[in-house]
Amino acid sequence: MSSSSLIALSHQMALQNQLDIIANNIANSSTAGYQAEESMFSEFLAKATTGDKIAFVQDRGVLRNVESGPLNATQNPLDIGIKGEGYFVVETKEGARYTRNGAFRIDPDGQLVTVSGDPVLAEGDLPIVFAPGESEIQVSNDGTVSTENGPIGRLRLVTFANEQDMAKAGASLYETDQEPLEAPDSEFAQGMLEGSNVKAVVEMTNMIQVMRSYQGAAKLIESEDERQKRAIQTLTKSV
After folding, report:
1. Helix (H, G, I), strand (E, B) or coil at 181
2. Considering its fold, how many domains does the chain have in total?
3. Per-residue pLDDT, 13
């Protein structure tokens, strides 16, 4: 395979990864707290047999858009949005995990949990537990959870020095080895749910552009293959 075909192939592989990410963004455009992703590319230089340098496309990773999504009113007292930066702290079997998806519920034990059943933690890394019969649930701007019987606890909100160094852990959760930092400037919004920050129209436009680029690279590989075949036929033709 010629150098031009290899370059086009590396471009195709990077575009395929980008297409997968765009498709995932579109699929999660209605997922609460979902943060859009985009591909990161760089140039990889290789030395050809002729001594010239060949530039390949290298997929370097994924960049996450950490901007807040829109807050949508649900009137559900157990839906809690975040105004500003930060993540809820969730206790899982694998340890602490973090999320911006504030769609919570109360489990049979009276604990405030995520839709997956993982306890949402308050300050002191304690679960928030409601007594039987408590129904008038209030969440203040500073995260204090109260009922008709008084305060229960205060939701913990943390952030990190490098939010890009957080890995997906499934069910809208993230994990990281970084030390959590407090997010004092952020507030909570009861009865609100943060929507995805995916801009569907932008993602659809990006998908069309990527597909066109992919088709262009495929056409280049096909043309180069035909050129090589014609060259071989010409050079091997008996005189």
Report:
1. strand
2. 2
3. 80
